[in-house]
Amino acid sequence: MRTTQQANRRRTRALTGIGAFVALGAGTALIASTLPAEEATGAPTAQTVADPSPLVGEPTGWATENGGTTGGAGGETVTVTSGDELAEEMLADGPRIIEVQGSVELDGMNDVASDTTVIGAGSQATITGGGIDVDEAHNVIIQNLNFADWDDDAINLQDGSTNVWIDHNSFTNGDDGAVDIKRESDFVTVSWNHVFEHDKSMLLGHSDGHTDDIGHLRVTYHHNFFDGSDTRHPRVRFGETVHAFNNYYRDNEEYGVASTMDAGVLVEGNYFEDVDTPTEIGYGSSDPGRLVANDNVLDNSGEIATEGEVEPVPYDYSLDDAEEIPSIVPAGAGPGNL
């Protein structure tokens, strides 16, 4: 058994082994180093250290409104190396930063509590099998993780969840949505993610009949790399203003952005390459929405369909030159891109 003095030394070493965040520009940041190797002995167990500072930067967009989004800042840091540990720690009370090491497997959808950051260590931290359910939660950050082969959604926001930042993750080969946001969720930023070898990327709005979403679903999508993914980048119902800026759309089989059910979508500074249908006004059986487009680049792509007017966004942001997006976004999107 460790003495109190030994335990304190262990806690101090672990604290010094966690790095400060590294700024990435455009209001984003990434990631902590791992706990010291000498602590990883015996059976894998969650490790905790006191850490008064966040391991991430600050979002841009809607996640800065409504009091802002800080995740687990001010709480302890917990390192997990298995899916069971991750599922347990995501339900713990109080603010915390959960650092995922290596590849972990989840079963089904797993709830995360308010005031939580889930962040991958290095560039290889991976979640397979299941996903993260942000359900009636507030102030959550999910960052620097590879999601693959999930059986439902990789990340699902629902039931009035607010102030969520989904940043610098990758998504591939899942069963349903990569990032679905619905059922009155609000004040969300989805930034610097890489979606590839996947079909349904990002749904916004539960269904045509779920009119409770009106007045909610305020989401910013920026600097995401939709890399050969098929559809929903995003597919929007009801939300206003939904802001898609400086994303890189490449070889998307069905469409880029769809505005339906009187949603108000602002599409600006994006680069569409080999995309036959950059935008849709209405889709399937859904009524048309509204869409305003500014300063986008169409490279061997179809025309951008627009309709009506859209309310301006209330936050400050910096718009990169759309011509530069094919060099900026692939270099910076996804896990490990410091």
Spell out the CATH superfamily.
Single-stranded right-handed beta-helix, Pectin lyase-like
Shape: globular
Proper CATH architecture: 3 Solenoid
Low-confidence stretches: 1-54
The number of E-state strands comes to 30
What is the class in the CATH system?
Mainly Beta
Structural class by helix and strand composition: mainly beta
Q: What fold name goes in the CATH topology slot?
A: Pectate Lyase C-like
- What value does the average pLDDT take? 86
Write a brief caption for the model.
This protein has 338 residues and is mostly beta strands. It contains three helices and 30 strands.
Report on this model:
The protein is mainly β and 338 residues long. It is 8% helix and 36% strand. It contains three helices and 30 strands. The strands form five sheets. The chain has an eleven-stranded mixed beta sheet with strand order 3-4-5-8-11-14-17-20-23-26-29. The chain has a single domain, classed as Pectate Lyase C-like, CATH 2.160.20. Helix 2 links the parallel strand 4 (76-80) and strand 5 (96-100). The longest helix is centred in the N-terminal third of the chain and has 13 residues, at 4-16. Pfam families: Pectate_lyase_4. It comes from Halostreptopolyspora alba. Residues 42-77 are annotated as: Disordered.
Outline the secondary-structure elements:
Blueprint: H1 4-16, E1 22-25, E2 28-30, E3 47-49, E4 76-80, H2 83-89, E5 96-100, E6 103-105, E7 109-111, E8 116-120, E9 126-129, E10 131-135, E11 138-143, E12 146-150, E13 155-158, E14 162-167, E15 170-172, E16 179-181, E17 186-191, E18 194-196, E19 203-204, E20 219-222, E21 225-227, E22 235-237, E23 240-245, E24 248-250, E25 257-260, E26 264-268, E27 271-273, E28 279-281, E29 290-294, E30 297-299, H3 325-332
Parallel strand pairs: 4-5, 5-8, 6-9, 7-10, 8-11, 9-12, 10-13, 11-14, 12-15, 13-16, 14-17, 15-18, 17-20, 18-21, 19-22, 20-23, 21-24, 22-25, 23-26, 24-27, 25-28, 26-29, 27-30
Antiparallel strand pairs: 1-2, 3-4
